[in-house]
Amino acid sequence: MAEPASFPVSARRVRHHQAVLFGAEGRPPYAGRPMELPGYAPQDRERWLPEPPKSSYRSDFERDRARILHSSALRRLGAKTQVVAPDEDDFARTRLTHSLEVAQVGRELGRSLGCDPDVVDAACLSHDLGHPPFGHNGEKALDALSQDIGGFEGNAQTLRLLARLETKKFFEDGRSAGLNLTRASLDASCKYPWTRDAAPLKSDGEPTRKFGVYTDDLPVFEWFRRGVTGTRKSMEAQVMDLADDISYSVHDVEDGIVNGQFQLKWLTDPEHRALVIERTRQWYLPDTDPAAVEAALARLEATDVWVTEADGTRRSRAALKDMTSQLIGRFSNAAFDATREVFGNEPLTRHGADVVIPENTDIEIATMKGIAAAYVMSSDARQPLYARQREILTELVELFWETGERYLDPMFAGDWREAADDRGRRRAVIDQVASLTDSTAIEWHATLVRGEQFRRSWV
Question: Which of 382, 402, 418 is the last residue of a domain?
Fold first, then answer.
């Protein structure tokens, strides 16, 4: 029997093969390389806090996406309301699954237009990070509780999370740089690039309630918007915005049907049809002729994928899934064709182009959202629940304000202690409550406000 080779010989062989395999670059020839797409300048890849060079296996934008993907704020979205609370149903979307679907739609549409897919993906994954418990209902409650410190807005809270509250890098003076994303990714994540005071006017002359930055987060905002005039969104932010609209317009309808809240055949009834048209205009298209909404609804009903009735069987679930898929393709392709027709076939990135959405497509998307608004969001049966949710958040804010740092998480307790004035301390309280999931908000309220034993401890 042959004598087995000794360990030193085996080790020498491994080293020999590695040298041949990895070559001069120290990497195998099949290893991925960072994607460098045209349309992005070196300043687009800069970070607020400069970082030393890292492995070339990933691009700067791939790192941005990874930082968001691994953030605690993204994980918490799994227990935050999209339309219905996560514990009400095991089918309906949560904020997390919605964000993943938006990222899929946005990544593909952005790539087809020449955007870096990781920049768009990062923007889509982060677009709802700032949402508090209980969805838009919770957002309204926190806004009412923070009027004296600049208000609360989910999109402004997203920037605050990316550039301050999520921890990855710190400046030498101790200030947090948040996840320290690149300029391009931060700009792409900013859906409303203006402060509340600088919000553009709507058609009725009133300023829009949406804004993307609080005044105390202006330093990072001014850094990533350097060289950009006015309030235009970057190309990647526009793709993210459209992907969000497309995704929730069809998915909220699908969820409502599966949850038994309505059937699309109801729209053949004149009263139901009028309700949807009214809600679409009231919530999304106040300046649009009702006849245009009616025409959009008729076009959607005329598609061969429209599911008038679903009975919960596997076949009907497949039909619903095909409807959502086909409508996503319908809306995305219409925007792709219209944008390419205006701006040609060059890569469309940053502030060099705009997403073009045909008017008919825009109305169709709004009409889908109007269906969900009519039967789900504005349902009379849910109004007592909404009132209770606002009460929970209001009483939590009041309690934390009265008790100072006592019950705050260590990070927010630190913000409270370091705040220069009551304005900063109030913002720390709002940040704490906004960070909670639906279930933890209910738990904290039960234990702290209602007096049950508070079991949370920090080691």
Answer: 382
Prediction pTM value: 0.90
For the chain, the straight-line distance linking the first and the last C-alpha, in angstroms and rounded, comes to 60
Same domain, 344 and 357: yes
Query: How many residues comprise the chain?
Result: 459
User: 176: which strand partners?
Assistant: 170
Q: Residue 329 is encoded by which pair of tokens? A: 């393709």
Residue 454 lies in a domain: no
Closest CA to 168 of 154, 184, 181, 182: 181
Domain of 419? 386-449
Q: Classify residue 4: in a domain, yes or no.
A: no
Non-local (6+) Cβ contacts of 307 within 8 A are: 257, 264, 316, 319, 320, 323
pLDDT at 79 over 90: no
Token pair for 116: 């870096």
Domain count, the chain: 3
- Structural domain ending residue among the three candidates 382, 405, 437: 382
pLDDT band with cut points at 50, 70 and 90 for residue 459: very low
Residues 6 or more apart whose Cβ sits within 8 Å of residue 291:
none
Are residues 402 and 255 both part of a single domain?
Answer: no
Where do the DSSP E strands lie in 131-221?
Answer: none
Residue 321 in any domain: the answer is yes
Six-digit token pair at 332?
Answer: 């995305």
Given this model, what pLDDT does residue 216 score? 94
- Neighbour tally for 381: CB within 10 Å: 7
